[in-house]
Amino acid sequence: MRGSELVLAVAGSRKTQSIIDECVTAAARNRILVVTYTTVNQAELRRRLAEAKPAAEVDVVGWFTFLIDNIIRPYLPFTYPGQAIAGFDYPSEYQQGVPVQARHRYFTRTGLLRGTHVAHLATRIVSDAGDLPLRRLEAVYDHIYIDEVQDLSGYDLEVLLLLMGSSVPLTMVGDVRQAVVPTSPRERKHHKFKNMQIMKWFRQHHGKSLTITYRSETWRCRPEIVSFADDLFAEAWGFPPTVSRNERRTDHDGIFLIRAEHVDAYVEQFAPQPLRWSAGTAKTHGHLRFMNFGEAKGLTRERVLIFPTEKMKALLQHGTPLEELAAAKLYVGVTRAEQSVAFVLDKPGLSAHPYWSPSDAAPIAADR
Amino acid sequence: MIKRVRIRGYRKFHDLDFRPHPTFNVLVGNNQSGKSTLLEAVGLAITGRVNGRPASEELNPHWFNQNLIATAIAGRSRGEPVRAPEILIEVTLDNDSDLAPFIGADDLYAPTSHAPGVRMRVHLNEEYRSEFETYMADPAARLIPTDYFVADWRTFQGGQLTQRPRALNLAVIDARTVRSSAGVDYHLRQLIGEHLTNGEQVAVSAAFRRVKENMGAEHLFALNTRLADGDELLDGGRVSLAMDQSSRTSWENNVIPHVDAIPFALAGQGQQAVTKIVLAMRRHAEAAGAVMVEEPENHLSHSNLNVLLDRINTLSSDDQQVFVTTHSSFVLNRLGVDRLRLVSDGAVEAFTDMTEDTVNYFRKLPGFDTLRLVLAERLVLVEGPSDELLFERFYSDRYGHRPIDDGVDVFSMRGLSQRRFLELAKLARKRCVIISDNDGRTQAELDETRKDLGDLLNADRKLLFGAREHGRTLEPQVVRVNDDGALRSLLGRTSRADLETWMGNNKTEAAIKIVDSPTVLTAPSYFIEAMEHIHARV
Fold first, then answer.
1. pLDDT tens-place string over residues A317-363
2. Is the confidence at residue A60, as pLDDT, over 80?
3. Where are the domains of chain A?
């Protein structure tokens, strides 16, 4: 096969599982590289691969490790002859105003490699080494997978472009609606493709070196949740509608509102995963075991309980659309749930979602 | 297979770039030229060890190139800070799919491409920079303080190595001695291990562990029971004996190869050498690699050496690269002069473009002293021993010292053709002259001989004939240019004897008389021309 493939798949469409399945079906002597940005996801991939016992040799690495082990370490002499890598500087300061050619843009005085500029250095090295790093990848690996590809930004995209130009089959999997972890916040390069805008970058390359396919079936979320999540994004994005394959029914399925005073009773009865924007919000309920939206990425829960921000309240109450990053975070939040999502909201506004209260054995319509 | 060896700052080698032949390399050179150092350096980069011990434990101030150190010290006396020296040994390997993960830039300082490889870099540990600088600032400090240095062993990919990766196979065979007291050195032990597949290794080591357990259960039991009856120790514990299960006592350390049922260390040294070499070269098929044999001629009789060289020749293959160091022309001629790599002054030169024909010629003439020819600075080829003696004498008379003092080595033909001699001289880029009898040939025939040799003859490589009117061989030539009476009294011949005939019949005796005599004779003109040619510094 030729050309690279991007699979944009909705939450709950078994993205990670599809990578594992392909590793399992690969031939015994194949060498496969699976790259993913977050350490949580790396650990998850390693665990599930260990269970699946693929015959092929599969390496799971983080994005930085991928760049360092396959591009920077082997080919650094082409750009900075004799430079040793004493270690990794992370988190590292963005080197504002340091010239692109300067060694100390990429290395600290003691020879630590600066995390912020790793991808930039990688692209310079590939260029100085006349694409040899790509030839190396072709010699070492039979297939490269990049999971959670929407997490990449800045010079990472330049690296992706280089990878698309190599003959190693490249499969990227991700969901731009979950682009909530900005990799290099201060990088100017490709700033306009930050977070969800990465979609535009993918579309620019679609058809040339890249084929984009969509997977719109979710095995996780109930149809009510899916429909709410889809509505978070304007039609202009062009995402195909999500189809729910979750046909399981419980006595509490769909989107609900609850009043703050009923939160504890709700938690008592349903044990949902409480979610919030950040540690600084929802302080009134600090005793709950919260997760931030970003952290929850990749998880599956039967039910979630969301403490909305002011803007999210406005969306629920008046249908005011959210800006991109907030929409993406809320998308991540609601799509964790299999059966139900509850919002803590005292004033329903125009919302048509039902209120839950402790006296309910089953959901009842909210009294206006 | 080793494609390239780059050595910087290691012992003799200031900056070496050596591209070995894919199958066979015969390294020759004078003593102290760096043959063994070259093999040692390759071993260091591939196995991480020197003399069987890890590089970091063996670091030695004398590892650093002495010229580099001397330059640094000279700089210090001018008030410059002493820069920390560095050793870098880079070995580029063949592009084998097993080695793909080792691919990276082929040179740490001046990369041109990428390949799988390994590099050993000995450099100052930055944490000790100030200590190093303080130490070296002392004008008395002449040796590099190696305790401030680290040996950093990595693949070209950049990953650190702690032990030799299995995909890298290298056997260094020092045919000279068995080093360890147990009679089996590290390398030999490694060789034995490599003859077994992984499965076999596991089976053997499991069986050995069972033997040890058995020993404990069956034979030490009674003893332990008895010990248990004895006095209790202070804290109430008891003493008992059990077999040592540490890796020091693993099976590899408890087996010794036997040659004809005689333990290896007790076998003849020749046998030891042959055993080691054959073991190294016959490893299981997937273990393609390199074998290094140092001076196989040692401890071997002529006939045994022949057998060994045959084995080396048959066992070498495309998957098995061989490096041999030698001081023996016999070894060189037998293994093939085209495989010769001359090591001198920290450089290695290859004799490429050697015709198949020439190679075969020297194979059939293993007694010819090819090495002497290669190692000499300038060459003179004469017809026979008497010409050799006379050349030496004429040269000493003319320049006041022997030719060898000027690096001029004089050879007798001994069956060697002028053409082969010139081919070798051309490849070795040696200034040379052939002093030849005219054998009564016509001028046209002499011209034809010269013409046949084509570009083998030039301003640097000359062929000189005795003047036709002065006789066929050297003896009449000498008679013609010298006073009859003086020559007769020198040779002790009466006026009745025909000098030319007597000298022709008693070449060596005549030559020895001339050499031993205080009388200085005039050399024939072609000898003078030859001496001037070979003496001239260009």
1. 999 999 988 999 999 999 999 999 999 999 999 999 999 998 875 54
2. yes
3. 4-65+124-215, 236-356
pTM score, two decimals?
0.80
Q: Which of A74, A84, A140 sits opposite B105 (nearest CB)?
A: A74
What superfamily would CATH give domain A4-65+124-215?
A: P-loop containing nucleotide triphosphate hydrolases (3.40.50.300)
Q: How far is B201 from chain A (nearest CA, A)?
A: 23
Using the structure block, give the residue that is written with the tokens 């002065």: B470
**How far does A144 lie from chain B, in Å, by closest CA?**
15
Of residues B139 and A23, the one with the higher pLDDT is A23
The enclosing domain of B51 has a CATH number of 3.40.50.300
* Stated length of chain B: 538
Residue B144 belongs to some domain of the structure: yes
CA distance B168 to B95: 12
Both B500 and B468 in one domain: the answer is yes
- Please tell me whether residue B334 adopts helix, strand or coil conformation: helix
Kindly state whether residue B160 falls inside one of the protein's structural domains: yes
The band of B299, judged by pLDDT with boundaries at 50, 70 and 90, is confident
pLDDT given at position B257: 75
Residue A34, CA distances (Å) to A22, A63, B195 in order: 11, 10, 36
Residue of A69, A78, A86 with shortest CB distance to B105: A78
The Cα B375–Cα A343 span in angstroms is 91
Can you give the pLDDT at residue B244?
Answer: 80
B460 and B351 inside one domain: no
Judged by CB atoms closer than 8 Å, whether chains meet at A74 and B156 is answered as yes
Q: Look at residues B309, B333, B365 and tell me which one is the last residue of a structural domain.
A: B365
Total domains present in chain B: 2
Any B CB within 8 A of A99 CB:
no
Considering the domain architecture, whether residues B154 and B301 belong to the same structural domain is answered as: yes
- Measure the CA–CA gap between B485 and B497, rounded to whole angstroms: 12
B157 in A contact zone (CB under 8 Å): yes
pLDDT tens readout for residues B333-379: 888 888 888 887 778 877 766 778 888 888 887 777 888 888 888 99
Q: Between the CA atoms of B199, B204, B206 and B209, what dihedral angle is there, to the nearest 10 degrees?
A: -160
Q: Are residues B389 and B497 in the same domain?
A: yes
Residue B320 belongs to what domain range?
A: 1-184+285-365
**Nearest chain B CA: its distance from A75 CA (Å):** 5
Shortest CA gap B113–chain A (Å):
8
Give yes or no for residue B285 having a pLDDT over 50.
no
For B237, counting Cβ atoms within 10 Å of its Cβ (0-12 exposed, 13-18 middle, 19+ buried), the class is: exposed
Q: A236-356 in CATH: which number?
A: 3.40.50
Residues A243-255, mean pLDDT to the nearest whole number: 94
Closest CA to B369 of B312, B420, B426, B314: B420
What is the ipTM metric for this complex?
A: 0.83
Is residue B229 included in any domain, yes or no?
Answer: no
Q: Which of A79, A136, A142 to mutate to test the interface with B (most CBs of B within 10 A)?
A: A136
Q: Cβ contact (<8 Å) for A139 and B100?
A: yes
Inside any domain, residue B236: no
